[in-house]
Batch of 2 targets.
Target 1
Amino acid sequence: MKNKFYITTPIYYANAKPHIGHAYTTIAADVLARFHKIQGDEVFFLTGMDEHGIKIQRAAETQGKKPQKFVDEIAGEFQSLWKKLDIKYDNFIRTTDKKHKEAVQKVLQTLYDKGAIYKGKYEGLYCVGCEQFKNENELVDGKCPDHDTTPEIIQEECYLMKMTSIQENLIKKIESDEFKIAPEKYKNEILSFLKTQVLKDVSISRKNLSWGILLPFNEEHTTYVWIDALLNYLTGIGWDGDLKNIPDQWPVNVNLIGKDILRVHATIWPAILMHLGIQLPEMLFTHGHILSGSKKMSKTLGNVISIDEMLEKFGADGTRYLLLASGPFGQDIDITMERMVEKYNADLANGLGNLTSRVIKLAQNCELRIADFESISNDEFSNIVNKLELSSALEYIWNIIKEDNKFIEDNKPWELQKNNQEKFQKVMQELISNLYLISELLIPFMPDTSEKIKIALETKKTEILFQRIK
Ligand code: MSP
């Protein structure tokens, strides 16, 4: 029987165009989905849009647009970027989809009937950027550190979801890795948070906000956007909200997220599932943030690196490579355009591009063909990818590239061709089979380049894979 592999990205807020951070997560998820497909797994890769809430309603108002029209346009921009980046998802969920909304209402009714939700009041400081209530101790100089804005004071009647009743059980599930939070440092961070404070019950509805899903048991309220959004991981595989109909793809194997949304995913998300009696995701994998010149990207600082500019300069595969190779997946990575151009020239134009064209030109003078090589499985490489050490996986491939370029320098096959045919064939056998291996290992990371190398190996014709950039 085939293994299943269900991977998700966060669903992105439809309040503005996609940026490099969204691309980073989505490329990583695409790489993992493609990798598992090659292993023969039954893969489901879900991404999509988070389209309700005050942040989006306000963004639409600012542009004088109806919220639905506004989110339709933004969703289109995301989809077109994913196409340009060669992202192959299985579903693009939008929280304004009718089916999603109906399922969310069903879930809320179930939670209400079970007594997990009750009517109360909430008073607190709300950061619209995060779409979350904040504790005083999370603020810096009274402002949200992620958005640099002063939260709004909200005091209203609402419905709340019980959190204390699940807390002990949640700690156990995280400690035992039944609900695995990776990398380890994030697991520790969440455990120490959960062990030092009693979780406050979470407000799951808003009274004065129209852009949201109506609560089925009180239509004066709309659903809190995070509850609505988290359920996408279930509705995105076709769940209708009925506990008897949990789809076969469940549970999620990897919920891929950025560190900015770890807390919600490690508390509210499992709480909903535990109240419902649904199995938790196998793993919540948290990656770091992309920084530009050691700072958070911001328009004010003028250090924003645009994903469109990257695509224009480096192409889809170049962009995929540079984002994932710039630093360990799981840690913050720091990029600058200057360093990426350097890396592009060194690793892609010189390293891989050069190797391919040298090997193919030399191959024109020997008998070996790609058909002489079998599909290769490589356990060492697979272990690295399975641990989501994506930059190490690329380093593994680039070590082969470097060694091969050196092997060519050392053996000078163009001389062997003239005076030692036997050794020439041997050297070429090694080079061609290594280039074939490289093309196989590259499939999930740089699908188009991998295909081009394979065609070059078959036809023995070379084209320039990566043009040097000045
Ligand atoms: N809508 C929520 C998520 C709901 S999931 C049920 C949200 N959306 S978001 O548009 O703000 O996207 C956040 C995600 O984008 C992060 O978790 C991360 O995956 C990615 N990134 C946003 N900025 C980033 C960087 N600067 N660097 C890397 N990734 C970051 O939060």
Target 2
Amino acid sequence: MPAPLFPVFLDLAGRRVLLVGGGAVARRKAEALLEAGARLVVGAPALEPWLARAAAEGRLEHRAGHFDPDWLEGVWLAIAATDDAAVNAAVAREAGARRIWVNVVDEAPRCSFQVPARIERGPLQIAISSRGEAPMLARWLREKLETELDPGLGRFAEWLGSKRAALRARFPDPVRRRQVLEALLRGPASDALRRGDTATAEQALDAALAEAPAAQGRVILVGAGPGDPGLLTLRGLRALNQADVILHDRLVSPEVLALARRDAERIEVAKEAGTHHVTQQRIHELLVEHARAGRTVVRLKGGDPFVFGRGGEELEALRAAGIPYEVVPGITAALACGAYSGIPLTHRGHAQSVRFVTAHCRDSIDTLDWAALAQERQTLAVYMGVQGLATLRERLLAHGRAASTPFALVENGSRPEQRVLLGTLGELPERAAAAGIRSPALLILGEVAALGARLHWFGAAPITHRLAPGAEAPAAAARSTLAA
Ligand code: SAH
């Protein structure tokens, strides 16, 4: 992959630009350049009628004849739009030698800049580029956006521009200013402007300027889902776009974080099993501090915040501090791992109930109701279980669950690197060790797990290789897995 292009918007007003070519393509370019206020020089032996008229009216300067490198004298930008490849190549070469940015229409390799497909709404412009590799796709996207973006947006952007100084003076703090603007955007002002009702919009702005209630921070507790960014909810996405600060766990995938507002401050509060980088108490303090400073804080957690996510404790701390909050659920690992491994958690005839349990430390293991967990025809979704698998097997077998009960261990569920290991309870810890299953992994135990062998659809095929008899030791088992 070559490096990405660097997008810019050029101010061409009053600047000299050379356009080489006098046909229909050149005319299209000339129209756009004149609209941008460029001092346009068009070089070509002859001009098509529209260009000829513009030249006659003095709106552009015509250099009659074949391309002459002298035409490049004093220009900021050059565009070659002839149907003669040799001329286009010469323009690109000569411009390049003079450090003048040059575009050859439809010949990306000769360009030092490219012209994007664009959408305009007054001063608001959206530019789309495919680096010249799929201009059709860029145009298709533009058409799609054209129909989706309200024409009134342009008027709104202009109006905001005219109010900019007043808003800045009234709200010197950029965070506060953004909040006021967002309220205006969502409120009656933008609707009124779209209808062309400037008076109502003015009233809404005056009200915002006059009232200016003190900045009120808040916390939105958001479930980021298991990793696939497509599994984030729309409400979660909206929260990420409003965030001034994002406090996220290690478990949150980079793809989900990439959807957040670019200028939001991101703070990783990693808490992996065993390595508590930031204590829960410290997380509470951070949430309260940022919210008290008037910020919109998104607390982003893997999966769902209320499923083994300590979301409840965080809300307790916020309530105690008097900070307003909202909660956006996420797709929890059990649901995602079931879906992405083709294992329905309940299934007629196989399982009438499903239990979400965690078994990561001695304490949590000892407090579980093993007799209930060992019942047949139910599914266990075990979180944080990678270390506790041997104890889990021992307890379940002791309480009567059959050694032949199927399991699925789903590692990195819903992510491109997902792995699914299938087997039976009797050989669970050995199989997991042999396959080198690491956190995050979720154990699905119960009759339904066997369905993963037939119904899998995502990522690599499940690992179903059985251990050779007597090859229980992890090292030997690892070798046999590799040899398989
Ligand atoms: N709140 C989270 C769970 C946090 S506990 C949720 O609702 O999903 C962390 C445990 O969740 C991990 O140890 C693992 O068992 C499970 N987990 C989270 N994401 C996972 C993923 N993508 N694949 C497999 N297991 C996952």
